[in-house]
């Protein structure tokens, strides 16, 4: 359905204003005539004139002439349905028309619009009453309205007033049309631009809009003239920083450029549009702002592409730092985290625990059940280990079936307790998670070391934990061993040695 144009709305407004003036004048000075009152006055005066004639006949006591006069009155006057001359005692002396059927006596001696009663005197005495029955004015509300002269007058004012106002406004606004002020080559240049361009006047109303902006908002360029940009309800792309002032208002207030402002426009049921808006104030001779040139650059596709690239980058970074089988840190990410934690140890003087863990007899799973089951064993073990750690702890797949765990801020004693708890969880939970291993128990061996034990760097700390793991393997597996410093051996020129310390 095509919407009414701006000129039509203005014409309707002026017609409504004219009708309002007429109705107010009627309310104040009675401009509208009361048609019913006029008819009643006419009928009453007509009936009084008839009553005077019948009074003369009544004085002559000529009953036959009175009857003939009544018959002629009804025959020659279509507005009179019936008439009767009623004596003082209520007896009908003469009657014309179906008076008894049509007459309904009003209360008292009053007359109504369709029941007129005029007294007839014989000398000074009340001799009788002349009753005239006129057609009823109650013909239905629509018939009454359409037959009303004042209503027809108002309808003519509406119709011809609208046409007159429409033609006058169309001719007048043609002189104010921007196309008559802006050269056609300028309008054509604006229409060629891929970005939407709008020119606002001193009241922030649109006086010029190019075709690109028309396509953006889905409104014809001519229908945009006179409207405001505020009516499109622009919003901020960031919900945490809502839009307080539109950029074109800021440019008008500050009298300076307002560039690259992000705006979002969302129509119900339509896709969200993202724009970068540039506002340029047009200054007069006295530096007053005469208008604002606003351009809308649609960056929806560009921002969607950037977002997709960001997601792809995050996914690639995840793949680059995560082991695809277990989801734990891969060896590269593990050493990057290890290096950061070691710098923190050196800077803050805190401790750092390194745990090396290895699945016992892992080769047997691959040999007996195949590599698919072996991969399942690695996955279950990684899952059990991860769920038993703190959120700030770091776990990585060191290689094959071997894992490395970092416990920031923990001491070696606390690391031994954590490793013991991990060993128990693996022994109790991992085997039941894989049914294809025919009840073969899954266990792990653990080696623990801490920065406080004297490692010179994080690589040496890993080597210490790995040597402790080797001792656990040698001492029967499914054990936790700690790297220890042997003071007696150190005094005889040996720096370090492994000593077993079982916590199983």
Briefly characterize the structure.
This protein is an alpha+beta fold and 504 residues long.
Structural overview:
The structure is a single chain. This protein is an alpha+beta fold and 504 residues long. It folds into 4 domains: 6-32 and 140-176, no CATH class; 35-133, Beta-Lactamase, CATH 3.30.450; 181-303, PAS domain (Beta-Lactamase, 2-Layer Sandwich); 322-491, Alpha-Beta Plaits (2-Layer Sandwich). Helices cover 48% and strands 20% of the residues. The chain is built from 18 helices and 14 strands. The chain has helices at 6-29, 35-60, 63-76, 99-102, 141-147, 149-176, 178-181, 184-192, 211-217, 221-224, 247-254, 300-321, 331-348, 362-369, 371-387, 412-433, 458-474, 487-491; strands at 82-87, 92-96, 115-122, 125-133, 196-200, 206-209, 258-266, 272-283, 289-298, 352-359, 394-399, 402-408, 444-450, 480-482. A 5-stranded antiparallel beta sheet has the order 6-5-9-8-7, sandwiched between helices. The protein has a 5-stranded mixed beta sheet with strand order 11-12-10-13-14, sandwiched between helices. It has a 4-stranded antiparallel beta sheet with strand order 2-1-4-3, covered by helices on one side. A hairpin with a 5-residue loop joins β7 (258-266) and β8 (272-283). The longest helix is centred in the first third of the chain and has 28 residues, at 149-176. The two termini are 83 Å apart.
């Amino acid at each position: 359905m095509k919407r009414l144009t701006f000129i039509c709305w203005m014409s309707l407004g002026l017609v409504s204003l004219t009708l309002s003036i007429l109705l107010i004048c009627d309310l104040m000075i009675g401009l509208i005539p009361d048609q019913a009152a006029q008819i009643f006055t006419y009928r009453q005066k007509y009936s009084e004139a008839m009553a005077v004639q019948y009074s003369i006949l009544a004085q002559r006591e000529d009953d036959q002439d009175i009857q003939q006069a009544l018959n002629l009155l009804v025959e020659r006057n279509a507005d009179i349905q019936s008439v009767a001359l009623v004596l003082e005692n209520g007896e009908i002396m003469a009657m014309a028309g179906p008076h008894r059927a049509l007459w309904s006596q009003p209360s008292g001696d009053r007359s109504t619009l369709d029941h007129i009663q005029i007294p007839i005197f014989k000398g000074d005495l009340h001799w009788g009453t002349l009753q005239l029955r006129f057609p009823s004015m109650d013909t239905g509300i629509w018939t009454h309205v359409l037959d009303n002269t004042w209503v027809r007058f108002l309808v003519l004012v509406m119709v011809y007033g609208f046409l007159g106002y429409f033609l006058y406004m169309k001719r007048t606004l043609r002189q104010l049309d921007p196309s008559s002020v802006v050269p056609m080559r300028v309008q054509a240049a604006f229409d060629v631009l891929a970005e939407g361009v709008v020119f606002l006047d001193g009241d922030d109303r649109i006086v010029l809009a190019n075709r690109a902006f028309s396509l953006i908002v889905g409104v014809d360029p001519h229908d945009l003239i006179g409207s405001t940009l505020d009516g499109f309800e622009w919003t901020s792309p960031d919900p945490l920083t809502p839009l307080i002032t539109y950029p074109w208002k800021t440019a008008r207030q500050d009298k300076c450029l307002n560039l690259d402002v992000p705006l979002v426009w969302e129509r119900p049921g339509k896709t969200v549009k993202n724009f970068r808006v540039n506002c340029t104030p047009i200054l007069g001779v006295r530096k007053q702002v005469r208008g604002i040139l606003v351009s809308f650059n649609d960056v929806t596709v560009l921002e969607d592409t950037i977002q997709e690239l960001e997601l792809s980058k995050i996914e690639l970074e995840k793949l680059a730092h995560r082991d695809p089988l277990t989801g734990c840190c891969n060896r590269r990410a593990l050493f990057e985290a290890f290096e950061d934690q070691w710098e923190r140890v050196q800077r803050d003087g805190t401790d750092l625990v390194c745990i090396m863990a290895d699945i016992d007899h892992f080769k047997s799973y691959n040999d007996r059940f195949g590599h698919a089951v072996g991969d399942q064993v690695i996955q279950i073990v990684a899952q059990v280990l991860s769920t038993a750690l703190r959120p700030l702890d770091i776990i990585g797949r060191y290689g094959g079936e071997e894992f490395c765990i970092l416990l920031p801020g923990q001491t070696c004693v606390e690391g031994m307790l954590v490793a013991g708890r991990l060993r128990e969880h693996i022994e109790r939970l991992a085997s039941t998670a894989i049914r294809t291993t025919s009840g073969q128990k899954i266990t792990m061996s653990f080696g623990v070391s801490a920065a406080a034990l004297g490692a010179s760097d994080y690589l040496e700390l890993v080597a210490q934990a790995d040597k402790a793991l080797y001792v656990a393997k040698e001492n029967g597996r499914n054990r936790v061993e700690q790297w220890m410093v042997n003071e007696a051996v150190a005094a005889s020129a040996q720096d370090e040695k492994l000593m077993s310390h079982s916590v199983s």
